[in-house]
Amino acid sequence: MAVLLALAMFLGFALLDWLISRGKAPAMAPDAVPTPAARAADFVYGFHLPANRSYHAGHGWALRERKNVVRIGIDDFAARLAGKIDSLELPKPGQWIRQGERAWKVLRNGVAAEMVSPIEGEVLEINPDVLKDPSLLRTDPYGAGWLMSVHVPDEEGTGRNFIPRDLIRQWMENVAEKLYARQPELAGAVAADPGTPVDDLAAALPGTNWKELTAEFFL
User: Fold this and answer.
1) DSSP secondary structure letters along 155-191
2) What pLDDT is attached to residue 199?
3) Which of 38, 60, 66, 105 could form a disulfide with 112 if both were Cys (CB 3.0 to 4.6 A apart)?
4) By C-alpha distance, which of 114, 116, 42, 36 is closest to 76?
5) 50 preceded by cis ω (within 30°)?
6) DSSP letter at 99?
7) Chain-centre distance of CA 29, in angstroms?
8) What CATH topology corresponds to 2-32+41-218?
9) 83 and 202 in contact (C-beta within 8 Å)?
10) In whole angstroms, how far apart are CA 208 and each of 68, 75, 90, 93, 201?
11) In whole angstroms, what is the distance from residue 84 CA to residue 138 CA?
12) Would you put residue 120 in left (φ > 0), alpha (ψ -120 to 50) or beta?
């Protein structure tokens, strides 16, 4: 009888915890298949910014997988700016990464560009496929090109440092205009949404130092 009572109490507490967690608004919206209209609205100057992600000013995205576990990667702008990279250097599982601080590197022609993490927590898993084939970052940054899953103890605190959802579009417009100010001809190819920017923006900016360019936009 005591065993049954203990089991019933355990199940009751588990159910209560689930109900409480369910009632909280997640820091990152769960993944979902967007409608065609919603997908069209997700493009800014041709750059894709799915509404079901949260974004950091360093051009990393975050997607809540489950309570305290967040998947992260780089956004479409960062993928196109980095262009045809040769390899990636990612933190190892068990390593702690801090929001807004350098967490991984992308390498092109032997030159490394560092990117900051959009969240803070312990790395649980890295994506082996993107390490084997770094082109996935450019071809599918929100899908097969994801970087890692992270245990985030303080989701609420982390969420305060994301770009507010109602400002994401303005933020990307400002970023794109800053880039196109360097080379106005680039903007002509994607003047009207949903035009698509070139896959390798750095290559379309002759004479530009790739490391300096990425450092400027990746913070």
Assistant:
1) HHHHHTTSPPGGGHHHHHHHHHHHHHTT-HHHHHTTS
2) 83
3) 105
4) 42
5) no
6) B
7) 13
8) OB fold (Dihydrolipoamide Acetyltransferase, E2P) (2.40.50)
9) yes
10) 40, 21, 26, 35, 10
11) 8
12) beta
d(CA 177, CA 184): 9
Selection from 157, 156, 133 nearest residue 146 by Cα:
133
The residues that bridge with 149 in the sheet, in sequence order, are 71, 125
Domain map of the chain by residue range?
A: 2-32+41-218
Higher pLDDT, 39 or 72: 72
Cβ 59 vs Cβ 74: under 8 Å: yes
- Tell me the two tokens of residue 15: 């159910």
Q: Which residue type does 120 have? A: E
Q: pLDDT tier at 168 (50, 70, 90 boundaries)?
A: very high
In terms of Cα–Cα distance, which of 103, 142, 143, 106 is closest to 123?
Answer: 103
CB of 95 closer than 8 Å to CB of 103:
no
Nearest to 155 by CA among 64, 71, 72: 64
Q: For 113, what's the count of Cα atoms within 13 Å in the CB-facing half-sphere? A: 27
Q: Which tokens is 120 given? A: 């803070």
Q: Is the pLDDT of residue 13 over 50?
A: no
